[in-house]
## 1
Amino acid sequence: MRTAYLECQMGISGDMTLGALIDAGVDVDVIRAGIDSLNLEGVELHVEKIIKGGFAATAVTVKHPKQHAHRHMSDIREILSRSDVITDDQKQLALQIFEAIAGAEAKVHGSTVDKVHFHEVGAIDSIVDIIGAAIGFDLLDVDLICCSSIPTGHGLVHIDHGICPIPAPGTAELLKGIPLQDVPVEFELTTPTGAAIVRVLVDRFGPRPPMTIEQIGYGAGTKTFPQRANLLRLFVGQSVPTKDRETVILLETNLDDTTPEVVGYTRQLLEEAGALDVYTTSIDMKKNRPGVLLSVLCQPLLSDELQDIIFEQTGTLGIRISPLERATLSRSVATVETVYGSIRGKVTRPVGRTEWFQPEFEDCAKAASEHDIPLRDVYRTAQSVFAEHQSTAATHDHDHDHDHDHDHDHDHDHDHDHDHDHDHDHDHDHDHDK
């Protein structure tokens, strides 16, 4: 599984993220073309290789005229609509990041997403950082994004509303549910833009997963700290199939005065909101009343949102919250072409075994209905096609490896060419907000 890991030992900001992406090999010309297509007058993306804390890194700076505009979500949508170069997926990803910031600001200021206006994040440089990062991650084309715990820094920061303790209210709201770490530096290490990027993009927080590293990118921050390299490091490579451990949240509540229809509707809303699993158990409650135990398993980031759904829909007066650790197998998404049409599914590799394909129920049910055949036949066909493809690929790889070894023994210039191209990998760019 192609995986990206963000190592945020000195926090994260928009320009650091963009710099790390470019340094890891994302095509800066494609990002520039996307930014240029927004028709922002006088705006230029400046990328350079620098030394930060003794390490080579990419620094990104957004050159722009002086401005005093405070923008709303409607302004951001209008800016993105100007481009016929940025893809729909890239625009959607950028909008998700802006909407996360708008939602956090709306909550801390008692406003709404459409009415709240961006301050620092509404500045041109932050807009470019977010849109550039959205383009960059789309081009990176990874299946899984992981991230370390996040340091916020300490002290006070000047924002549009005055002086605030670090993290600023909007940043703190964005970091709810995300594991933090203490780095004893009196500075804003994680900006609202950086917090929004990890909130929207990251699938899993924790140590770097077992992986075969293919690229490493260093994004430099603008601030220089004694004895600490102000860098964001990005690892890109292939995850090693293994049992991954992660922290999840179990939400539970006992219901004895809720109709089955309400329970079913609540379950549907919870699943649509991103719950990992929702299930019910019949229980006996006080005064000999039959009841239902509603259990919801979710990522820590979604805990508050799912609690709100449970309170609003069921009328319960309390929810038990338990952090749990679970082990999961790495998985990816694949599609197989069968005589019944395209069938999507999840691919995983149990430890010590070959890859296994589990078809998606919706695709199989649709195919079974359209072709008037048993559902189990579609499942079996999809798994058979996947197994045949794997067998063919394995045979091809074996033949390819044999040919490669044969040529390698006779090609005496191979080592020279490899060394000659080595320096090219270090020609990257950089970005940073902090």
## 2
Amino acid sequence: MARWDGIEECVAVAETRSFTRAAERLGSSVANISRQISRLEDRLDVQLFQRTTRSVTLTDDGRIYYNHCRALLDGLVEAEQAIGERLSEPTGRLRITAPLSYGERYIAPLIAEFTMHHPRLEIDLQLTNQRLDLIESGIDMAIRVGVLEDERLVARPLAHRAQFVCASPDYLARFGQPHTLAELKNHSCLLGTLDHWRFTDQGERRDIRVTGRLRCNSGPALRDAALNGLGIVQLPDYYVKEDIQAGRLVTVLDAFAPAEEGVWALYPPNRHLSPKVRACIEWLRRRLKVEYPVSGADQRL
């Protein structure tokens, strides 16, 4: 490509301040270096270097051109490195954090399979509901569900999850089924860590404050309480989907179902995404869609 001719020679002369040392760096001859620089100056119609018997220095135009050419060569090297990393086998230690229940149900089994496919990789998977600081904790990747809060991190979508409001047939037989959001105040709601539930009403998000006699920060415990007829609960699909399919729980207020939440892979903003993190993200994306389809929405990812 003619437009690239002379660029490496220009950068080498600028950085070594010598046609001789530039030729040594590039494994070329002084005559060829001089010829390439002259052709480049003729094409650009500017003088790039001031030449004396003792030194070679950049002109003002040469300094501007050198800065851009240095960036181009750096970008070329980085592009080649990125391709090399992509094709290389993931190795080393990969530290991942994920929410406890979602991690136990979905992430941990997939990570175990991923580990089997990459014998040179060591996995450290931490399941916790604490929002660990990836940068301070030295964690390579986090799985997060819902609204993202840390703008310092790069986010890749993996899947979606849905929220269901449901109760046991026994509870609904005794206390009736709510048909409007306002009717929730007449029911015993099983509370998690929040005092409100999310809904969608005429296309707009609505947060409805709910009350009840039982509060617990455990999804499985709230599910068990709902199965035992203690009240209505709002829980993610992975807690209650099988119970709904089996008829042990019945969904209510379906017309006000909240928008689905994203499941994300987050990682620190590195210049190049490491092969181990890239491979893990792609593995989770593919496997979550095939093995654990939450809803039709994740097919859009």
## 3
Amino acid sequence: MKRQRVGSSLVEDVQAELREEILSGVRQPGERLLVQPLSKRLDVSLSVVREALTRLAEQGLVGSAPQLGFTVMPLSVDHLNDLTRVRIDIETMMIRRATVEGDLDWEAGVLAAHHRLAGTSPESGGAMNPAWRAAHAEFHGAVASGCASPLLQNIRAGLYDKAELYRAWAVKVSGGRDVVQEHRQICEAVLDRDADRACELMAAHVQLTTDLLLESMPDVDVP
């Protein structure tokens, strides 16, 4: 069926479709993303596919190189460790500010986002549930939104996007993890405006995702 949307809206559609294929595991880390076959399958122009892939590269989900084109970003131990350390630094900095700067609307937003997340199943068919992925992003964004710095908000959002590929793979090895309790404890500490406790919980939450994935990496095909 011919796509009806045009221009930037069409690029957004293709970007969203390819992003979901990457994060659901349909596209493997390191897999080449050939523009022409994608253009034919998605029934869009080559330029639309290139723009969508370029945007995904900006999010850290796709890599690009001269002569090689686009590939799904491979999993990297060094990159994951570095990304985790920086994410913890930024997330905890913003939580400390949020517990001081956040108002009642911020508290209500955190509570509503947590309620939605708690009511959504993380897995669907052995892969991460897209609805849970959206609710998870909303919750973490809501917690950080109490920080009044637009610059920090942009930095945090970029780091969160870059962690999505790792998070999608970590769900495969997180069977024994009580992620519901982790989020509930973070929510409670934030709403209590207990910055030390909230930062401790957030750091442990982010680090555990990394630790579980690192433990599994010998059994994962990591280019």
